[in-house]
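One-letter codes give the sequence; the integers encode the fold. A sample entry reads:
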Amino acid sequence: MNIQQVDLNLLIYLDVLLRELNVTRAAAQLGITQPAMSNGLRRLRELFDDPLLVRTSGGMTATERAHQLQPLVREVVGAIERTILPREEFEASRSQRIFRIMASDYAESTLIPRVLKHLRQLAPHVIIDVLTPSDVSFSDVEQGRVDMAINRFEEMPLSFHQKTVWDDSFSCVLNRDNPILHEFNLENYLKAQHIWASKTGFGVGVGVNPKDVQRLGWVDLALAELGHKRDISVFTRHYQVAMLLAEQHDLIATLPSRVAMLQVENPNLAVLAPPFEIPPFELKVAWSPLLHHDASHRWLRQLIFDIARPELTQELAPAAKR
């Protein structure tokens, strides 16, 4: 087939259809009739020799071929838009934009307050809607319904853009009256009762199986490599809750250091380096290619990375704060 015989408007149709997964909504977004959009879908199916969208019990679903085409089509359409449309600047001081950000409890505690502080100064009318991982699916981010996701990701769609915010280590938080405080070694750590805290990825969480070390995360995997296992009494998905529980005399919370250091001035708690090596992890920002060139989105991303940049070179002191 000669490219000159292809109606390039069909790529715009396909771009919107794969975002909306609904012929009626796609037609409304493009300002055309539903029959015209249906006809466009028919022509697209002929062009690519694939149904592209199929009806299922959950609505229209993209085929594997459509998933392969989506980032390529978005790149082509985006390039055309950037070439033809005038470049818009983002006036942060006057904007009333709402940014929807999926942030883990960890990111919400350590990064979001810093971001908000700068936003109140630079963009006082901008609104931040912070969502939890359980509120959001990969599809929500991929389709641009959520501006970005800030978390520790075990896996991520290849189409996403991503960038590291900072690296972090782990620290232990325990009550100052805990009897093992002054002899904090691996032997006493393993004899103690522990608080487990974690929530990564997307979607609704499920109950934790204490015997499934592979799914318990970095701390327990590091112990397993040494041939050990800790005794976990409490499982929580909230780091703030873990730190409150750590005030009990016989519990230890092993948490990301930037979270633990939020309690460094708490007179009831001590923050110590773990008595064994735990590999560091990365906090990342991920976003859809649909928003990659959006002026306001670029502005917020740059703000986040500017805020985080000093942190990339600051190492938290490994010595114990007693």
The chain is about 40% helix and 20% strand. Residues 198 and 217 are 8 Å apart (CA to CA). The longest strand covers residues 161-168. Confidence is low (pLDDT under 50) at residues 202-207, 312-322.
